[in-house]
Structure formats: structure tokens, C-alpha cells
Amino acid sequence: MFFDDERSNRLRPQILTELVSQYMNDAERARFYGLPESTRVRERVKIISPENLTIGEHCWIGEGAALDASGGLEIGEHTSIGLNTLIFTHSSWLANMTLQNHSGSDLIERKPVKIGKGCFIGGLVVIMAGVTIGDFATVQPNSVVAKDVPPRSLVAGNPARVFQKYDDEYIQSEVERVRGENARRRALAEERGDASSSWGAPAGDFTE
């Protein structure tokens, strides 16, 4: 049933690793992959060539994300990668075009991807090989990132382009807005006798 060749024996440990990891919680899964203890890795995440992945503290990888680190992948601290997001660091395009898409083809191209610290990468995003995403950047869901993203910018679309730039003053105003609104919601929840969340905002309708 199982092949006993070099390629099969090389791939099988990775397959078994992914299978075993499905029975772990997000913190256990991160530790199992040798990632920082503060990083959380959700279900069905696939990491290709994990030995080439460098990731910072307090990162979050969403369900079903595929991280191709075969060409080198760096993710900064406090960055979130949305569910079902695809990050590529290699391409077989030329091998396909020349009918040389066989195992071991020398037409596979690899380029590293670098994602800065404090980034928010939405769900269903595609990041192409060779892209650098600057610190504190936001990539909206369903975007295709084929070019570098400047720091402190919001990009969206296919191909993704810059829609907004933000500075420390804007971020601080948003921090104050969200914390104020969350405090209001928690106070209303307590008045109603609802169980209050220990972090963030309680769920429910809090319109006045």
C-alpha cells in the first residue's frame, strides 16, 4: 500500500505530523511545531518546510492556512494570519509552461516572503512569492498580494493596492474608541445580569 522510495519516506513524517496535530489545541499545536509558546496555530494549518519558517511571539495562524516556507518565510511578532490564507514562496509556473513539472525539476523558482510585526492579514488572502509586507500593515480579506506592501498601510483587492495609510495618532484614537465602547458594553452587560467577558467586548446587541 505504501511506497518505499526516497520521496515517500521524506514526506511521510510531515504527513504524520499534520495528522497528529489535529488532536491538539492551538497552543499545543504551536509547541508541537517548535514555534514560540505565545503563538497559536488553529486546526488544519499546513506548514511546508517548517525548518525555513521564522515567526515571532504572540502570532495567530487561522484555520486552514497554508504557509509555504520552502523559499523562506518570516513573520514578525504580534501578527495574525487569517483563516484559509495562502502564502507562497515558490512557483512551478515555468516548469508547467515547458512540460517539465516532474519531481526534482530545476525550474522551480523560490523567493522568500517577509511579513512585518503587528500585521493583520485577513482571511482568504493570497500572498505571492517574493513579497515583503511592512510593519503594522493590514491586508483586507480576499486580497491577492503580488507586490510589496508599505508599512502602516491598508491594502485590498486583486491585485491588492493601497487604500489607506495610518500613523500613531490614528491608531491611538482607534484604541481609545474601542476601549471606550467595550467598557460601555461590559457595564450594560453587568446591569442586565449577563455574564461578562474577561476580555474584549461581550456578545450581543448593545445599541441604544
Automatic annotation (TrEMBL):
Family matches, as InterPro entries: Hexapep, Hexapeptide_acetyltransf, Trimer_LpxA-like_sf
Keyword presence, Transferase: yes
Region feature (Disordered): 181-208
Basic and acidic residues bias (residue ranges): 181-194
The family this protein is said to belong to: Belongs to the transferase hexapeptide repeat family.
Superkingdom of origin organism: Bacteria
PANTHER family tied to this protein: ACETYLTRANSFERASE C18B11.09C-RELATED, SIALIC ACID SYNTHASE-RELATED
The entry's keywords: Transferase
Name assigned to this protein: Acetyltransferase
Statement: the UniProt record of this protein carries the keyword ATP-binding: no
